[in-house]
Description:
160 residues, mainly alpha, 0% strand
Amino acid sequence: MGDQKPIFFPVSKTKLVVMSISTLSMYDLYWFYKNWKLVKNRENLELKPFWRVFFAYFYCHSMFDRISNYSASSPRFDSFVVAAFWIIVFLLWQLPDPYSLLATFSFFPLLIVQGYVSQINQEHSPDSNSNNSFSKWNILAIVIGGPLFALTIFASFIPV
């Protein structure tokens, strides 16, 4: 498509869900990394995207707030509620099996935010890549992570 840079990390909702499930929610952290990197470059900030992701529980609200407040033409979402929702769901992996599988749904709060990201990117850089196709690396993650996820589900229901 065009050479315009997106404002925030573009990814289709389908790809976000598939990659999040296939990577056992690690794609969520990649999503944050890509967004922090765009923010750093666009705003010339001295932040370190890696550390923002490493401490994602503490910085997710800040990212969601930036996205919510970016466009004056779109309605805002409650970044605190979405951040709390993401943190709670992401932490569910600590529950005993099979309840820990609920952490797989950590993409739900990101879907809310990604809807806003898509609108912002469409408004400000309509010719930028929408990132809706799967790269070779994405397919590799799906091929490896999909069966791993299936085994995780299966193992969660086997009594110890």
